[in-house]
Specification:
Blueprint: H1 2-9, H2 13-33, H3 43-63, H4 65-77, H5 90-115, H6 117-127, H7 142-159, H8 163-181, H9 191-194, H10 201-207, H11 225-229, H12 252-255, H13 258-263
Helix pairs in contact: 1-8, 2-8, 3-7, 4-7, 5-6, 5-7, 5-8
Length: 280
């Protein structure tokens, strides 16, 4: 286990690139062979917009990496955080660290984004995609990327996560972003059974339904247990009932034009038919 953690502590660039680029390519091919939905869309143009946001996420991530490293070094050196309350074997520290990183750095911030209006306007960009495929997984407005990383840093401080656990979690997070957004029912009939522990493709796609209440469910990233614990889990057996997008931005000029997508957080808030925030 020490060698395993050391590998992720000093994770090589080639490994991270393989997960990001190799994962995109693998699921891109897979969804072409066994698609969940037969979209009529310009797949390359669609990918271009989403890959732009992937690039901005990478740039901001590299720019804020020093803050993440500083937080991890500080808590590790001072043995501060949840992982230091009880003396646990190393393997259990790793499991607990990844679990709580997923809770605070993914589930919690995602839940907050759906409940706080100004944050929702940034996260809204992710939900505007009406043709969810593997490239949709990293479609996040640059502003959202900043406060997601800040919540990740907060998670590191609360947990006391060492760098190896952080990089393991982030590697799994990228892999699950590809898996759960790919236009393919990867696990087939086993999807529902696996959703008792993990966020599965069909489970996450319910979250991308265009209207409430399904939009406000399934906030998990890797583990579905947090949605089950906090009562936000939703599973739909008939995936034909799921319609992608968000009801306030269903026109193509609003959800498929890069300039408008970048501007959405600064536009006037639009009240959906069943508003979670009320009118302005």
């Amino acid at each position: 286990m020490e060698d395993f953690l050391d590998f992720f502590t000093n994770i090589p660039i080639w490994f991270r690139a393989t997960i990001l680029i190799g994962g995109l390519m693998f699921f891109w091919v897979l969804e072409g062979l066994i698609p969940l939905y037969h979209f009529q869309y310009k797949k390359v143009s669609h990918a271009g917009i989403n890959l732009f946001f992937t690039l901005t996420t990478m740039i901001i991530g590299f720019g804020m990496a020093s803050l993440l490293l500083l937080a991890s070094d500080t808590v590790s050196t001072n043995e501060f955080g949840l992982l230091y309350i009880v003396d646990l074997p190393l393997w259990l520290q790793v499991v607990a660290g990844v679990l709580f990183m997923d809770l605070i750095g993914a589930y919690f911030i995602h839940f907050v984004e759906h409940k706080v209006k100004w944050m929702w306007k940034f996260h809204l960009v992710h939900h505007t995609d009406t043709t969810i495929d593997v490239t949709s997984g990293l479609r996040h407005h640059p502003g959202e990327t900043v406060f997601r990383i800040l919540f990740t840093i907060m998670a590191v401080i609360i947990i006391g996560a060492p760098m190896g656990v952080i990089m393991l979690y982030q590697s799994l997070s990228i892999l699950f972003a590809h898996l759960t957004h790919a236009n393919s029912s990867f696990f087939g009939k086993w999807d529902k059974a696996m959703s008792y522990v993990f966020v599965t493709p069909n489970m996450h796609k319910v979250h991308h339904h265009y209207t409430q209440p399904w939009t406000d469910t399934n906030y998990g990233n890797i583990f579905s247990i947090w949605d089950r614990v906090f009562g936000t889990f939703q599973y739909v057996d008939d995936m034909e009932k799921v319609k992608y997008g968000i009801d306030t931005h269903m026109k193509s000029e609003e959800n498929a034009e890069l300039g408008n997508l970048l501007a959405i957080p600064f536009q006037k808030y639009r009240v959906p038919p069943e508003s979670k925030f009320g009118s302005e």
